[in-house]
Write a structure and sequence with these properties.
binds nickel (II) ion; 8 strands; 254 residues; 41% helix
């Protein structure tokens, strides 16, 4: 398959330290045409930006992740502001709410999420949103601030998906659709309007079956596309092409 657009990757992760450049140089030959790397802290946002400068096909999303916002200082947000001027930055992310891991108090997460939603609107950039076990608060804040963007690794119900689509949001699906007991993600994959679907890895995590538990990379999106295309009764390559067009539209590329 060709023309794969991975809308969510973490190639700055230490699990790529051993062979990062070899892998990133090889991905275009494996059908990958664009990747958005997502920062989760100031430091990883800087690394993300450096990767986007080294590789033409990599773009940067920068921001503070909900699990990391407890440690973020005011000076981190100031430093991020300067990075947003870079032309390779196409989104504010990865931001959001995570009520699964009890590491950062809810009110701290909500404050960090809201300030970055406001910022995204000011910069006229889309947001890449992480929502884990926090659907109600996430939707409430998206309703309030009305940014453009994507709900990444979408884990909600078909109803929540429809609510998000009504708000103009895109739905990101990855390896989870291939897992056993993937009833909910598959129902979403079948029901989401074709012009709102995006493909992603969240690599190094979430490798699709038959690589579940191993290190993920953007070329494995082919397996995700096959699974989603099967439930929708379409050709995987047609799905990949449509999802790439969707991502180009959202991130205003090409
Ligand atoms: Ni992520």
């Amino acid at each position: 398959m060709t023309g794969i657009f991975d809308t969510h990757a973490h190639y700055d992760d230490e699990r790529f330290d051993e062979d990062r450049d070899t892998l990133l140089q090889a991905l275009p030959q494996k059908g990958v045409c664009r990747v958005i790397n997502c920062g989760v802290t100031l430091a990883s946002s800087r690394t993300t930006l450096a990767l986007s400068h080294k590789y033409d096909y990599i773009y940067a999303a920068i921001g503070i992740h909900p699990e990391d916002c407890g440690d973020a200082a005011e000076s981190d947000y100031d430093a991020l502001m300067e990075l947003y001027c870079d032309p390779k930055v196409v989104a504010v992310g990865e931001i959001g709410l995570d009520y699964y891991w009890d590491t950062v108090p809810k009110d701290v997460q909500i404050k960090a999420f809201e300030r970055q939603l406001v910022l995204a609107n000011e910069l006229d950039l889309p947001v890449i949103v992480h929502d884990r076990e926090a659907h109600a608060d996430t939707m409430m804040l998206l309703q309030k601030h009305r940014p453009r963007g994507i709900l990444h690794c979408f884990s909600g119900s078909v109803e929540t998906m429809q609510e998000a689509v009504k708000l103009g949001f895109y739905i990101g699906l990855g390896g989870a659709v291939t897992f056993k007991n993937a009833k909910k993600p598959l129902a979403v994959a079948a029901a989401v309007p074709l012009d709102r679907l995006l493909l992603e890895t969240d690599c190094p995590y979430m490798a699709p079956v038959p690589f579940r538990g191993k290190r993920n990379d953007s070329s494995l999106i082919a397996y995700v596309a096959e699974t989603i295309a099967a439930v929708r009764g379409m050709e995987p390559q047609v799905l990949i092409d449509q999802c790439r067009e969707n991502a180009d539209r959202l991130f205003q590329l090409k």
